[in-house]
Each structure stands twice: as C-alpha cells, then as structure tokens.
Design a protein that fits this description.
Length: 417
C-alpha cells in the first residue's frame, strides 16, 4: 500500500516538475499521514493546474470562437453590402426602365406609321423625327430613351374632324338662320337634317344672353381645325390680326418663328395660308357658329357676334379626310396660347390615347371646347368611359366636352357621351 502510494506521489510530482508549475520536497517516511497530506496537496495542486489549464484552453477556444464570429460578421456585412448594392443597382435599373416606359408609352415599332416619331422635350418644344427604315427607327427610339432632355416620345397619331366621320352630309354655309333652333327654340321647328319634332326651350338661350351680356374685354378664340375661308362675307371683321407682323414682306417681324402669320398659321402644311381649298369647309362652319355676323341679312348668326371677340384660325387638319396629327395639333395649341388666345375649339378626335396632346392641353391655361365625338366610322354614339374618344375623354379641369343634342332634347344616336 505504501509502495503504491509512493508511486502515485512520484507520478504526480514528476508530472508537475516536468510542467514547471512548482517544486515539491519531502522526506520519505513510513507513516501514512504525511504521505496522505502530500498526496492531497499534490492532488489539489493538480486540480488547480487542471482548472488553470482548462480555463486557458477555454479562453483560447473562446478567443478563437470570437475571432471566427468577428470574421463571420465581417463576411456577413460584406455580403449584405453586396446584396444592398445589387438591390440598389436593380432598383436603378427598374427605375430607369420605368422612366423609359413612361416616356415611350410602350408602343411597338408597327405603331410608328411611316417610321415617324413625335417628340415632346422638357423645355416644351416639339419635333417630328422621320426614319428611313425600321432599323433606324429602333436605333432612334433607343437614343430617345436615354436622352434626358426628352419628356415624351410616341407615334404621330392621326386625327379627323368630327363632321367628316358622320353619315350625314356636313353642314355648309346656309343663309337661312331660321334653321338655327339651337339659338332659340320655341317648339315650332321641324325638318332640316333630322326629322324630329322640336321641344320648346331646348336651346342655349341666345336671345337672353345677347340682351344681358356685353363683353368688356377682347377675347381671342382659337379655332384649331381645318382652315377658314378668310374672305367669307359673313365673317368679315371677325378675325384676329397679329399687329406685330407686316403682311407680305416675307419676314418674321415679331420673331415668333412664323413668317407673315398675320391671321394665324397653317400647321398642316407649314405655311401662313390658313385657307387652302374647299376641304376647309368644316373650319369655316365652326367659325360661323362662333362669330358669324348677325342681323346683316347674310348667312347665319354666330353666337358671339361682338367686335371684341376675335377668331384666330390655326389650321391643323387638312386633305380629303380632314386629317391631322399629334404634332400639328400640339403645335397649333402652343401657338394659339402664345399669341393671346384664351379659348380653344377642338371639334376633332381619335380613338388612340395621345400622351403628348394630353400633356400639351394639361399645361395650357386655355379653356378647351371639345367635341364628344360622332360615334366614329359607324356613326353610333357610345359611353366615353367605356369606349373613349380623345381628347374628349381626358379628365382635365380645362375641358368642356360637347355632345350632339337634337331639337327635341334627346341625344342624337351618333353622339358620344
């Protein structure tokens, strides 16, 4: 037993001395108490050393784990930064795509008739770009998408005057003002274009308006339509005159970009001639409705026959079918406002939503009187909320949309509403 005890002490002592932790000296005795005390002391010391060693190992392991955790945090931060950068790049890409889509309206190449592009720049200027091929068209559209000066670009849409789309023959200048039931309807009217029995007071109360209203300022009404016959006897003295322009001298006297625009401008064929041929009958008819002389025993009576109500003829429609385009209309509207018009007549329409025309009208301070539409090619009227006609269907505060009402007060079958 003692021999074994000595061996145990020797083993513990040799291990501790080898570790250099402490020195032990003792005398070998035959008694068990001293041997037990030394054993206990050695065991306690060994436990202490083991604890210190375990603590050291634990601290080392903890330090290593902390380092690994810190490395993981750094890596995670880097990964998060990469993810954020990727998300930001993706967001920018989506933002750029959304901006380009809002600028272009997502039209296909086939929508660009004759490879022509209507462009509205952020400074308000307009341009028409003509391309020689679909490949050139595609390249040009890509360039416009990246051009920061461009607000909108789209096809140059086509417009027609509303009278040209009706089944009935368009109204021409007629000397019989008794047919103008819309001015004053006593219920006795019958016949003419529509076979209906008139209803009393289905009118605009023109007689009362003329009695009580005397305009106190000059009002310029822009007629954006076909041209107007300037020499019509019932329109003498009705036209706006650009007093800053000298007629016939071939110069742009007022510096507005248009040479000899004395009574308006022709945006259909880019000239100062606002009357071209007999296709200008619709514009002339509208002009008579607005301001033909009354009480002169010639033709019809206009609703606003006053010396200080002037008509500005701005031709934007032309040809056999009285057609125009996005650019001709938008330029005409801008010209009218820039030269003093406060009211603009638009008796025209298309079934295609036109962002450039919409923006032009929205940005204008003029009041627009717009035809609701005559049912298109079928001459069957419909709900503009379900089957819109533009610009009549635009939800703008400066638009009054006018429908077609019969002498009996009922909506005509061809009228949109």
């Amino acid at each position: 037993m003692r021999s074994n005890q000595k061996k145990i002490i020797a083993v513990f002592t040799a291990a501790m001395l080898a570790a250099g932790s402490f020195q032990v000296s003792f005398a070998q005795t035959s008694g068990s108490s001293k041997g037990g005390s030394v054993l206990a002391a050695a065991a306690a010391q060994q436990q202490s050393q083991t604890a210190v060693s375990q603590q050291s190992d634990s601290e080392e392991a903890g330090s290593q784990a902390a380092a690994e955790t810190e490395n993981e945090v750094v890596l995670n931060e880097a990964e998060n930064a990469d993810i954020e950068n990727s998300a930001a790049d993706s967001s920018q890409d989506r933002s750029g795509e959304a901006e380009n889509q809002s600028k272009s309206g997502n039209y296909s190449l086939e929508d660009y008739t004759d490879n022509q592009i209507a462009v509205l720049y952020k400074d308000g200027s307009l341009d028409l770009i003509s391309c020689s091929s679909k490949d050139e068209l595609a390249d040009t559209l890509d360039q416009l998408a990246q051009d920061q000066t461009v607000e909108l670009y789209q096809p140059d849409f086509s417009y027609e005057d509303e009278a040209a789309k009706t089944v009935s023959t368009a109204i021409t200048d007629d000397p019989d003002s008794s047919k103008q039931w819309a001015l004053e309807n006593d219920g006795s009217f019958s016949g003419y274009r529509f076979r209906v029995s008139a209803a009393e007071n289905v009118d605009v109360n023109a007689q009362k308006a003329w009695k009580y209203y005397t305009p106190a300022r000059e009002v310029v009404v822009a007629l954006v339509d076909t041209g107007v016959q300037q020499n019509h006897s019932d329109l003498a003295g009705s036209f706006w005159v650009n007093e800053d322009e000298i007629a016939g001298n071939g110069k742009d006297d007022d510096g507005n970009g248009y040479i000899d625009d004395v009574n308006g401008w022709n945006f259909y064929s880019e000239s100062n001639s606002v009357t071209t041929d007999l296709t200008d009958n619709h514009g002339t008819h509208c002009a008579g409705t607005i301001t033909a002389a009354s009480g002169n025993e010639i033709g019809l009576a206009g609703l606003a026959d006053y010396d200080n109500v002037k008509l500005m003829s701005v031709k934007a429609l032309g040809g056999k079918n009285s057609e125009g385009s996005t650019l001709s209309l938008s330029r005409a509207i801008k010209y009218a406002e820039a030269n003093g018009a406060s009211i603009c007549s638009l008796s025209l329409g298309t079934t295609t939503n036109d962002p450039i025309l919409y923006q032009t009208m929205k940005n204008s301070s003029m009041l627009f009187i717009v035809a609701a539409g005559n049912g298109g090619e079928t001459a069957t009227g419909g709900d503009l909320d379900k089957k819109p006609s533009y610009p009549a269907a635009y939800d703008l505060d400066n638009i009054i949309t006018v429908a077609n009402v019969q002498a009996d007060g009922r909506l005509h079958s061809s009228s949109d509403y």
